[in-house]
Design brief:
The complex is a heterodimer of chains A (807) and B (299).
Chain A: H1 51-60, H2 70-75, E1 90-96, E2 102-108, H3 110-114, E3 118-123, E4 147-148, E5 154-160, H4 163-170, E6 174-179, H5 186-190, E7 209-217, H6 220-225, E8 229-237, E9 249-254, E10 260-264, H7 269-280, E11 287-291, H8 300-319, E12 323-326, H9 329-335, E13 342-350, E14 356-368, H10 374-383, E15 393-402, H11 416-434, H12 438-445, H13 465-476, H14 478-491, E16 495-507, E17 519-526, E18 532-536, H15 545-557, E19 564-566, H16 585-610, H17 622-631, E20 637-643, E21 648-650, E22 655-657, E23 662-674, E24 680-690, H18 697-716, E25 722-723, E26 726-727, E27 747-751, H19 769-786, H20 797-806
Parallel strand pairs in A: 1-12, 10-11, 14-15, 18-19, 24-27
Antiparallel strand pairs in A: 1-5, 2-4, 2-6, 3-5, 7-15, 8-13, 9-10, 9-12, 13-14, 16-23, 17-18, 17-20, 21-22, 23-24, 25-26
Chain B: E1 6-8, H1 13-22, E2 26-29, H2 35-40, E3 48-51, E4 61-64, E5 67-71, H3 76-81, H4 83-88, H5 90-97, H6 102-107, H7 110-115, H8 124-129, E6 133-137, E7 142-146, H9 147-150, E8 151-153, E9 156-157, E10 164-171, E11 177-184, E12 195-203, E13 210-217, E14 224-225, H10 227-233, H11 240-252, H12 264-284
Parallel strand pairs in B: 1-3, 2-3
Antiparallel strand pairs in B: 4-5, 5-10, 6-7, 6-10, 8-9, 11-12, 12-13, 13-14
Helix pairs in contact in B: 10-11, 11-12
Classes of the chains: A alpha+beta (807), B alpha+beta (299).
Chain lengths: 807, 299
């Protein structure tokens, strides 16, 4: 049975049980946008799609289809970057700074050069192009030029015939420094007279202030004057390390005609392409980037692959040989970007009925020595500072600050988990102060369709936050569970139980800070046997992107999934499709694929007509049609394109349509605290998400379970201490992430699907949201269990025990 | 990257002892779960290792002349499932359940856990309250050292460079003995202890007579027995007052350390509270389900 994508058909279809009526209908019509502008058409014709067709579509979209990459990964056959090698390949080693802030007075590589196997050395003087790693602001040198600003900063590179020689030779480098006074604390760095860390051209107003952003809505004085209760607190969070399975790495291969090819583990092939072109002074067209099978990223492979690829490329350019650079785990942890440590001062006011009147937030993020992604991270933190709540009077100030520490960057949630910890803690304190139930105060204040956000954006139909709260409460049986927790606590001597709830919103895509990145391309080719080859510009990094895109293509083309192959991501195959970040992969590449499919279906329909093949028979007889394409010299390839819906954000006021749509979630955790030791155990967990239509239920559930684990780690155990710019952990022995025993054995995951009509089949983003909600639900549960205010992470047994003593 | 080293592969114990006798710089390798981490982290740089993990003479658990004898190359996983240990070393078996992770348990050996000399060795506190002894063998001689004298400092033991730890033994417990082990880590599995406690209670026919042994791991430079508290409790009866006083004494008499896993103050507070809780449970016959052994309780 054929499902045609020709326009003028729309569904006013029941989606079956479990889909609340507030969700608008969805149908083929919403996908039938015009080329280049997928968001503008919203025809509301009402030619119904029959239920039979709808069920068939449901068979692919929403189904838990096994990921095509699973078997190779399970069997160990997937090729990660370190599994690849090229004839004549050299091994790179980075010579790094051992001091946090210094002028380099002398470099002596005479002993390095004499070491057997060493082929070449590269310093800042050798860089043929601009000596910078291009991310947002061009402040970070690829190789330190006379000055180092953090421990671990690359100073020089060497390439040797084998890995062991590279390692050994690197230890023979002699670097003389004249140390400069350093600053490690962001608050101290902002004080007058503090040592200047930041490169002058990238600071705002004063030294070390990388970025300052704000939101002003309503009248904050009036808002607090209207409040019957005001609570105020300062919250602290530290570093979080991604701890992806596969460490950072790249291979640079010089090719004929001066071209350079990069193979590597990454999220953003087009960032890497731009960075390598800049450092080698090559036109973009001479740099080709191929993403290799990527063993996890979580944001950690947004900016760093631009560094590793640039460094490998410099050595390959100088030696004219392929060069492999793989970071050891220790090197990776010490030098790669992490979640920004934060200081969040939060003041909130509410009326006696629980209605929020005003929120004032001041947040300071420790950016480290260079900007990298800090301005974007801070922006998301500022926009998300109020949470998914209706607040008339808002005043937010955010600053990211330069210090002599490792540069921080992207990590799942991207600046939002820090403020979520604060906004959820504040809301609970208001509820407790007013004697209102904690779930109820969220219902009272949750944003609805038509409400305005902190940036004064009016929310559209896909606003399912209220449903996530209600559904989560229902699943855990909130009131009953509160009672059983109280009963338990009355009886137990050594244990206390607690319930925590956390509700979050997440702006999908890059939003008003970088609207020019919200685009994606797709290339689709009908092969002569009727199978389909597709190239896209976003990446699989473990999250299931390939599977979801295949499902979308299968649905859009009405071709079985096993006839579709997604080619390895290669920057030469598709236009710049932006980064695979910000939970945008499914939405953006999905739309580009649908757009391409629409064009190809049109051509196919025409050829089918000439062969007397009816619309219903197209899928079954596609090989005949493909043969006809081939015989008649018809063009079997198409390109698809998607651009983000318009956003408009005014940096002066901080107001505007910050993102084109938001995803939502409510998590509830039950914890058990051992009051003797302070150990916390997460005993039960409910996670309800609104990410619009779920394309693959099993993968989405997996994303959420993973996010719960990562959020649990952030709240309870993951910790890096920094002392004089030196990090306290060197590997996974001392950097503790949760084990399978630490995560809740039963996480009840479900979805309320507030369809986003401009997304592929109604989908919004999901990737980051689970972590964002999970950590706060857990920390709020601990606070409830031991009846205290919690103001910093991680909640190690020692910290919990200290709080037990205070309660 | 692992540094290069020479690896000796003896096929029998006499051959191994012969090799050990030839050089005082040969480092025994059994499971390698600590040693290889150190090598990789360049904490130690031995030139020569000798693999004793596969030697048959160092395998097996048996009861011999009133003693339980465990070969030094018996793995933690073996102990976890061994029926003789279930009968005669229940407190040790509790420790094997929370020891590192299944992969490490499959490789790590009981001898290696002690000979490495870590203050946080999880097998040490249970063996201390079992009054265990360590059998040391060199080419021409054999000697037995009480465990509490075996580990002398952080990664320091009385083992002579030419000796191998060949067995661990302890006297079979009298009837009426019951022990408990509690591990406090920073996560539920694969954690280095912040603190571990083993308590052994022996009661004679009458409720009033009790003998108590208490050992602590990861709080001092070596695993320790808490003698002052034991003395206070010996003879019984175990009233709530005497338990509270002993718990306090256990904490006060311990020179707790501060490290990256916890402060001395925290350790001291937990010692007081945990000793009291474990002793009370033992005295009352209460069994608690521990966090790091739990499987969650909601369906």
């Amino acid at each position: 049975m054929l499902y045609s994508l020709s326009s003028n058909r729309a569904g006013n279809v029941s989606l079956g049980v479990g889909i609340p009526p507030y969700i608008a209908s969805w149908g083929g019509e919403s996908l039938a946008y015009s080329e280049g502008d997928p968001y503008t058409q919203h025809g509301r014709s009402s030619v119904g799609v029959n239920r039979q067709q709808n069920r068939e579509r449901e068979a692919i979209i929403g189904a838990s289809i096994v990921r095509p990459d699973a078997a190779d990964k399970v069997r160990g056959e997937a090729k990660f970057v370190d599994d690849l090698s090229f004839a004549g390949m050299l091994y790179a080693k980075v010579i790094r700074s051992t001091v946090p802030h210094a002028r380099i007075t002398n470099l002596d590589f005479s002993r390095v050069c004499k070491h057997a196997g060493v082929v070449c050395i590269v310093t800042a003087d050798d860089v043929p192009g601009e000596n910078i790693v291009h991310v947002i602001y061009d402040d970070q040198p690829a190789l330190a030029d006379g000055i180092v600003r953090y421990i671990g900063e690359p100073i020089a590179l060497l390439a040797a015939e084998d890995r062991r020689s590279a390692e050994r030779a690197a230890r023979l480098a002699i670097i003389d420094y004249k140390e400069i006074e350093a600053v490690f604390d962001p608050v101290a760095a902002l004080k007058p007279g503090a040592p200047v860390v930041a490169v002058p051209k990238v600071v705002e107003q004063r030294p070390n202030l990388f970025n300052a952003m704000h939101i002003r809505k309503g009248d904050i004085e009036q808002g607090f004057a209207e409040a019957d209760i005001i609570v105020e607190e300062t919250y602290h969070t530290g570093y979080q390390e991604h701890a992806y399975l596969e460490t950072q790495g790249a291979i640079a291969v010089p090719e004929e005609n001066g071209a350079m090819v990069i193979y590597g583990t990454m999220q953003c092939p087009f960032y890497v392409q731009a960075a390598v072109a800049k450092v080698l002074d090559l036109p973009l067209s001479k740099v080709r980037v191929v993403q290799t099978t990527t063993g996890g990223a979580f944001g950690g492979k947004e900016d760093i692959p631009s560094v590793t690829s640039s460094l490998a490329a410099l050595l390959a350019w100088k030696s004219r040989r392929p060069v492999k650079l793989i970071l050891s785990r220790e090197e990776d942890i010490l030098t790669s970007s992490k979640r920004h440590p934060s200081i969040v001062h939060y003041k909130s006011g509410a009326r006696s009925d629980g209605t929020l009147t005003a929120v004032e937030v001041d947040l300071v993020y420790n950016a480290g020595a260079y900007q990298t992604l800090s301005s974007a991270v801070l922006w998301r933190g500022v926009i998300h500072a109020t949470g998914p709540y209706r607040i008339p009077h808002v005043k937010i100030d955010g600053r990211s600050v330069a210090t002599n520490t490792v540069p921080c960057g992207a990590f799942r949630g991207f600046g939002s988990p820090q403020v979520i910890f604060a906004h959820e803690s504040q809301l609970d304190r208001l509820a407790d102060g007013l004697g209102i139930d904690r779930l109820e105060i969220r219902r009272i204040n949750a944003l609805k369709t038509g409400d305005r956000t902190a940036t004064n954006q009016r929310l559209g139909k896909s606003t399912g936050v209220m449903e996530t709260i209600k559904e989560a409460g229902k699943r855990i049986r909130w009131k009953d569970r509160l009672k059983s927790v109280n009963t338990f606590n009355e009886k137990s001597v050594y244990h206390r139980r607690g319930l925590g709830i956390s509700t979050v919103m997440y702006g999908v895509g890059l939003g008003g800070k970088a609207p020019f990145l919200d685009k994606a391309g797709a290339y689709m080719k009908l092969e002569a046997d009727g199978s389909l080859t597709i190239a896209v510009g976003n990446v699989e990094m473990g999250q299931g992107f390939t599977t979801v895109v295949t499902q979308i293509a299968s649905e859009a083309m009405q071709i079985p999934m096993n006839r579709i192959h997604i080619a390895p991501i290669d920057s030469s195959r598709v236009p710049d499709s932006g980064p695979t970040v910000a939970s945008r992969g499914t939405t953006m590449s999905g739309l580009a694929v649908i757009n391409a499919a629409k064009k190809l279906r049109k051509r196919i329909a025409k050829v089918a007509g000439s062969l007397d093949i009816t619309e219903e028979e197209i899928s079954a007889r596609l090989n005949e049609i493909a043969q006809a394409f081939w015989m008649r010299n018809l063009d079997p390839a198409v390109e698809g394109w998607a651009a983000g819906a318009p956003v408009s954000w005014n940096p002066e006021t901080g107001l505007g349509d910050a993102y084109f749509v938001y995803s939502y979630a409510t998590h509830i955790a039950e914890v058990d605290v051992d009051v003797t030791t302070g150990e916390v155990s997460v005993e039960d967990f409910v996670a309800i998400h609104d990410s619009g239509k779920i394309i693959n239920r099993q993968l989405a559930t997996g994303q959420i379970e993973g996010g719960i684990a990562q959020g649990l780690g952030f709240a309870l155990m993951e910790e890096i201490k920094e002392r004089n710019g030196e990090l306290s952990v060197k590997g996974l022995t001392t950097y503790r992430i949760p084990t399978v025993r630490d995560v809740p054995s039963h996480a009840h995951v479900d979805f309320v699907e507030a369809l986003y009509l401009k997304g592929p089949y109604g989908a919004k983003g999901l990737g980051e949201v689970p972590l964002m909600a999970a950590h706060a639900a857990i920390s709020r549960a601990v606070a409830h269990a031991i009846n205290t205010t919690i103001t910093s992470y991680p909640l190690s047994p020692e910290q919990v025990k200290r709080n037990v003593a205070l309660s | 990257m692992l540094p290069e080293f020479e690896l000796l592969m003896p096929r029998t114990l006499p051959e191994a002892l012969e090799m050990m006798n030839e050089s005082s710089r040969v480092i025994p390798l059994a499971g390698g779960t600590s040693l290889l981490v150190d090598l990789r982290g360049r904490i130690s740089r031995p030139q020569m290792l000798i693999n004793i993990g596969g030697l048959d003479e160092l395998r097996g658990v048996r009861v011999e002349e009133g003693y339980v004898v465990v070969g030094s190359a018996v793995t933690i996983a073996d102990l976890k499932h061994n029926v003789l240990i279930a009968k005669h070393g229940q407190v040790l078996q509790q420790a094997t359940r929370v020891f590192a992770n299944p992969l490490v348990r499959n490789r790590a050996t009981i001898g290696g856990n002690l000979a490495y000399g870590s203050p946080a060795a999880d097998a040490a506190p249970p063996l201390l309250v079992l009054d265990a002894e360590v059998e040391l063998t060199c080419k021409d001689a054999k000697r037995t050292v009480p465990l509490k004298e075996f580990i002398t400092g952080v990664r320091e033991t009385v083992r002579h460079p030419r000796e191998l730890v060949t067995a661990i033994r302890w006297p079979i417990l009298p009837e009426g003995s019951v022990g408990v082990f509690h591990k406090l880590g920073l996560r539920k599995a694969d954690a280095i202890s912040v603190l571990s406690i083993a308590v052994m209670l022996h009661r004679k026919n009458t409720e009033d007579y009790a003998q108590v042994r208490i050992a602590l791991g990861a709080v001092a430079p070596t695993p320790i027995r808490v003698t002052p508290a034991e003395e206070l409790l010996s003879g019984g009866p175990l009233t709530p007052e005497v338990i509270a006083r002993a718990a306090q004494l256990a904490s006060e008499s311990t020179h707790a350390i501060s490290d990256i896993r916890g402060s001395a103050a925290y350790r001291k507070r937990v010692i007081t509270a945990l000793v009291k809780r474990l002793l009370t449970n033992l005295a009352e016959g209460t069994k608690e389900k521990k966090h790091n052994e739990s499987e969650g309780y909601h369906s």
